[in-house]
Amino acid sequence: MFNIRHYLLHVVVATILVMLGTAPGSQSYAQTIPGAGAPSVLPTGGGAALMDASDAVILLLDHQSGLFQTVKDIDVADLRRNTIMLARLAALLKIPVITTASEPKGPNGPLMPEIHQFAPHAVYVPRKGEVNAWDNEDFVKTVRATGKKTLIMAGVWTSVCVMFPALDAHAAGFKVYAVIDASGDPSEMASRTTVARFVQAGVIPTSTNAVLSELHRTWNRPEAAELAKLYALVAPNYAAVIESYQTAQEAAKQTTGSAAK
């Protein structure tokens, strides 16, 4: 049976070993960190079926204040937190971000400001009334200009603002992931039927935690400490694990210092 406490403890220990430079095989594996100029598929075959950070672009679609008020399938605070995590992850790993909004000066409201706050490199593409972002020529040109073929999409509503461009992008030859818990719908039924349609069409439904883990890949990388903070963002209890470790380390240092005197 999966034990979340054991998993989190393992993650913390692995992080500390990496930071101390004592992780098993740390020198050899450091040369094959995905996203650090090395192939994303390792000699073992690891990564062959996972996201490739070097080929990814994150598309955040219509995360708008007015639309948030209609979301019923996920707590809006969780939705915003997960979207912020994607923005922070993109900034940390230097993954392109493209945003767009549907009628931001109308009832749908403005785009949530945290996206561009935490991902200042994000490119905003205005639309001219199109419901489907893939109907907008500028949006599609901006996506193609990245040269990336893996699209990680999230938005509000899942059944419209994510599904329409996701299906069209998949039909155009892109590998498309839909981040369900960074998206929202007016009902659970709408969300469930959309996920079913994604699966039927070949779009891959996923979660923020899965995206973070797939793009992260190894604790043996210079961003390990910052990545740990992102896990604490999507799994708040993980922050308690980090805090307890840090407290124990401080206590150990004080004990060692006293003994040395």
TrEMBL record:
Residues 57-209 form the Isochorismatase-like domain. Keywords: Hydrolase. InterPro entries: Hydrolase_YcaC-like, Isochorismatase-like_dom, Isochorismatase-like_sf. It comes from the Bacteria. It holds the Pfam family Isochorismatase. GO terms for molecular function: hydrolase activity. Signal peptide: none annotated. This is Hydrolase. It comes from Bradyrhizobium diazoefficiens.
